[in-house]
């Protein structure tokens, strides 16, 4: 419903306009009337108004001066002038003030309806544009029914990101309505808007830039809201910056501040982040954590279940008493998941999706202790899955390794190359080949190459030894001859003579 103010000193004309507006059944409510320009201006100064209908000739402050000063207070205000025929040319000049339109006295229903319908359509388009700004930010269900009042377009706003603290219960208080009440109480009389974001556990809060008058210090500003939220039992981290922005800039600023908050949120305490501070930086590179993560990945590749679980339990306990960022914990967990997926679900998209869903479920626990137990249980289950798959598929892996080596007899493949190709450790490749060939990797691969050399000699008895060495990637003819004799009992030349 749009709010309209009528400034008219003639009571009969005022009553006529009120009746006509009401009869249009448009979403317009006449919230006040004024008998002089100063009275109308004072009302606009203290109350939200979308539409001003004013007579051009008003006591104390004429219609044009009223519109000019009212637009200074509210640039989005839609103004309609009411004038007599004698004021026609004067009214035309008034359009330079961006007056929406004018009505000629006596105001008649068709004329008023036509002007008001166009005015309402333009207001709807403006509000729709404001709403569309938040389509990629706000929860889709909330966005579909959200309505922005007239005040929303009037002033620049301070952008706040409020995020539920990790591993805390999902309370009813986290709903937008409760948070709205907390911010309204903390920041009154400055207007606040609260929107549930698409990101789980996160809210976008917009506050009129005038909040700077009440809380010049940014930390005090956030603490005031945080204290209200804590009364409701809500543990949250929060980020904002001093600089206010126009509505069009909100989405970009939301993304930037949200990313900073997610990167810097600590696990064990609430954070109040000044996103505009020169000291605020992106996520630091934790070299120690990266090295630790690599150790855990290696334990997974080596199938060292007991060692991995023991180290993981110790590490989780250490993180609880120390300081680790939530983003770092998430990155660590997802890296473990990727290591398990490479082994258990190699080239199986459905299995990887299932594993990803399990990881996401870990982070919705109500406490850090519950998360730790869930992570340890999940880790054990992943190891068991790997063991079961290995029992069923170790021969399948050998078959794939053998096929790959057969296809690469004319190049040089190392055990490290195989480990990278099949996402397993070099020692595991070695064990698999030993199990099914009773040979080391080197001996088995050399056997395949020498068998291929024998086949080539049989097909082409005149082939040169040097050519054989080069085509099979031995590089050195003498080394090839030595290896050939080791596996066949004859030198290449002797073998060729026997084949003729």
UniProtKB/TrEMBL annotation:
<protein>
    <recommendedName>
        <fullName>Response regulator</fullName>
    </recommendedName>
</protein>
<dbReference type="InterPro" id="IPR011006">
    <property type="entry name" value="CheY-like_superfamily"/>
</dbReference>
<dbReference type="InterPro" id="IPR051552">
    <property type="entry name" value="HptR"/>
</dbReference>
<keyword id="KW-0804">Transcription</keyword>
<dbReference type="InterPro" id="IPR001789">
    <property type="entry name" value="Sig_transdc_resp-reg_receiver"/>
</dbReference>
<feature type="domain" description="Response regulatory">
    <location>
        <begin position="3"/>
        <end position="120"/>
    </location>
</feature>
<keyword id="KW-0805">Transcription regulation</keyword>
<feature type="modified residue" description="4-aspartylphosphate">
    <location>
        <position position="55"/>
    </location>
</feature>
<dbReference type="GO" id="GO:0005737">
    <property type="term" value="C:cytoplasm"/>
</dbReference>
<dbReference type="GO" id="GO:0000160">
    <property type="term" value="P:phosphorelay signal transduction system"/>
</dbReference>
<keyword id="KW-0238">DNA-binding</keyword>
<keyword id="KW-0597">Phosphoprotein</keyword>
<dbReference type="Pfam" id="PF12833">
    <property type="entry name" value="HTH_18"/>
</dbReference>
<dbReference type="GO" id="GO:0043565">
    <property type="term" value="F:sequence-specific DNA binding"/>
</dbReference>
<feature type="domain" description="HTH araC/xylS-type">
    <location>
        <begin position="399"/>
        <end position="498"/>
    </location>
</feature>
<dbReference type="InterPro" id="IPR018060">
    <property type="entry name" value="HTH_AraC"/>
</dbReference>
<keyword id="KW-0963">Cytoplasm</keyword>
<dbReference type="GO" id="GO:0003700">
    <property type="term" value="F:DNA-binding transcription factor activity"/>
</dbReference>
<dbReference type="InterPro" id="IPR009057">
    <property type="entry name" value="Homeodomain-like_sf"/>
</dbReference>
<keyword id="KW-0902">Two-component regulatory system</keyword>
<dbReference type="Pfam" id="PF00072">
    <property type="entry name" value="Response_reg"/>
</dbReference>
